[in-house]
Structure formats: C-alpha cells, structure tokens
C-alpha cells in the first residue's frame, strides 16, 4: 500500500486526532484560521482515505487498533527522523543491535545505513529492507507468520529469535505511554516481543515521538522507567514527569529541525 499524500494542514489534523482522540470542526477552524467549510473539505478527504471518521461535531479515529503501517509512515515524519539521527549518533560502529517494529525504529534503520561492522537482529521486514545491501551491516531476521500490513513478525517466533542473542543495544517503540508510565501496545504479542528485546540487551533505547504520550492502546507491558534511554523529539510532557524514575530512563531530546513538522504546545480540549 502506498502512503497517502497529504498536505501540511491535513497531516496536522490527523496528528491532532490521533493524539487527542477527537477534534471539533470549529476548534480546527479556529486553530488554522480558516472557515469551517475549508476544514470540512480537509476532513472529508481524510475520511475518504479511511484515516479519520466523521462523528457529530467533528472527527475521531476510525478504529481502536493501530493505523495501517503505510498511513503511520507519514505522521510526525520529521520528528521520527530527528529521533533516528540521534539514536544513530548514539550507537557506535561495531555494535550489535536488535531493532523492533514500527515506523520510528524503521527510520533508525535508515539512519544506521552508513555504520560499519554492525550486526542487526530484527523482526521487521521494513528494517531488513532499509539495511539490505549495506556492506558494513549483517542482518538476521526473525522467522514466523508475517503480518501482511505491517510486514513484521511478533509472538513466539520473534521472542525466540531475540532470546537467542545478547545485543549491545535494543531499539524499540511503543503504541502509547500512559500517564502512570505504563508502556502500551496494540497486541499482547507485540508486548511479549518488545520485552524479549529489552530482556536480552545491555542497553535499551525506547524511541517515541510526542504523540505517544497519552495515546491509548489496549495491551500493557513494562514501564517507562524500565528503559535505559528515552529518545524523544521534545521535552517530556509535564504531566508525565512523575512517571520517570530518578535515573531511568535517561532522556535524550533529538536536535530541533529548522522547520518542525507540527506545532508544539498544543492541548487537547
């Protein structure tokens, strides 16, 4: 599936709804300083592509689970790339790295392509494809049933694969981060796979853009303080500072781009 092409306003509307759960037409019109009719045209296009769902007074997410991978690829892309570059600068040549599923870990793989003497273990075909052909990188991929939309393997096959290695680093994302610091995903098999990565590495790197804070997902497993490092695109939201332990995770804020992908300081009404 080819990622849909959205303009800047449509991307920001989509990101706000995924972050907040709902957005009202009048609130969106005020935020973007356009008429409600203009917002409705943008919203209708997003709904026609299955990215959002019209409800009374506004729009919400069309499903309780995660959006399909190609649609997630376009969300917060600048933030994901900045996070990925920070992770790539953190990981030295000659390291062993397990890389998990999701669009941010896939961007980390892209950022690692210039590394040398790297050994990568992954359960994501997107990661393996990004690194394939890089002369200084050896890739091992987990076996098992392939999820057709996300092109990854989760569950027992991936758990067995990650458990067979002890890597220097593990790079993984999450579906969401609850206010009490609980890490959330959309499937218990995703949780088990992520925990296998964390249990079988020397240093764990959680990668998450700002939209993951407060994003609902049904499967729980692990806490924010379990990760050694948290790579994010901005400061940890104030409401979540209490979920950080005294020394874990160490928060690594990616360098700001000249033109951010979305506005900051927004609130969900």
Automatic annotation (TrEMBL):
<dbReference type="Pfam" id="PF08220">
    <property type="entry name" value="HTH_DeoR"/>
</dbReference>
<dbReference type="InterPro" id="IPR036388">
    <property type="entry name" value="WH-like_DNA-bd_sf"/>
</dbReference>
<dbReference type="InterPro" id="IPR001034">
    <property type="entry name" value="DeoR_HTH"/>
</dbReference>
<protein>
    <submittedName>
        <fullName>DeoR family transcriptional regulator</fullName>
    </submittedName>
</protein>
<dbReference type="Pfam" id="PF00455">
    <property type="entry name" value="DeoRC"/>
</dbReference>
<keyword id="KW-0805">Transcription regulation</keyword>
<dbReference type="InterPro" id="IPR036390">
    <property type="entry name" value="WH_DNA-bd_sf"/>
</dbReference>
<keyword id="KW-0804">Transcription</keyword>
<dbReference type="GO" id="GO:0003700">
    <property type="term" value="F:DNA-binding transcription factor activity"/>
</dbReference>
<keyword id="KW-0678">Repressor</keyword>
<dbReference type="InterPro" id="IPR050313">
    <property type="entry name" value="Carb_Metab_HTH_regulators"/>
</dbReference>
<feature type="domain" description="HTH deoR-type">
    <location>
        <begin position="6"/>
        <end position="61"/>
    </location>
</feature>
<dbReference type="InterPro" id="IPR037171">
    <property type="entry name" value="NagB/RpiA_transferase-like"/>
</dbReference>
<dbReference type="InterPro" id="IPR014036">
    <property type="entry name" value="DeoR-like_C"/>
</dbReference>
């Amino acid at each position: 599936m080819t990622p849909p092409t959205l303009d800047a306003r449509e991307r920001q509307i989509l990101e706000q709804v995924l972050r907040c759960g709902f957005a009202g037409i009048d609130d969106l019109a005020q935020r973007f300083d356009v008429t409600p009719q203009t917002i409705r045209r943008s919203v209708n296009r997003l709904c026609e592509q299955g990215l959002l769902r019209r409800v009374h007074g506004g729009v919400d997410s069309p499903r309780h689970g995660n959006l399909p991978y190609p649609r997630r690829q376009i969300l917060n892309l600048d933030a994901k790339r900045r996070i990925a570059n920070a992770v790539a600068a953190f990981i030295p040549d000659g390291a062993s790295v397990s890389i998990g599923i999701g669009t941010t870990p896939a961007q980390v793989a892209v950022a690692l392509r210039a590394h040398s003497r790297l050994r990568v273990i992954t359960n994501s075909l997107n990661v393996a494809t990004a690194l394939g052909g890089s002369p200084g990188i050896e890739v091992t991929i987990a076996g098992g049933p392939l999820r057709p939309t996300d092109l990854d393997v989760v569950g027992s096959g991936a758990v067995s694969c990650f458990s067979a290695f002890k890597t220097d680093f593990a790079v993984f994302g999450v579906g969401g981060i609850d206010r009490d610091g609980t890490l959330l995903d959309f499937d218990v098999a995703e949780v088990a796979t992520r925990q296998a990565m964390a249990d079988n590495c020397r240093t764990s790197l959680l990668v998450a853009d700002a939209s993951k804070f407060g994003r609902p997902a049904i499967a729980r497993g692990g806490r924010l303080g379990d990760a050694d490092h948290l790579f994010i695109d901005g400061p940890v939201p104030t409401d979540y500072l209490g979920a950080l332990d005294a020394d874990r995770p160490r928060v690594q804020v990616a360098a700001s781009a000249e033109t951010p992908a979305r506005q900051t300081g927004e609130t969900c009404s």
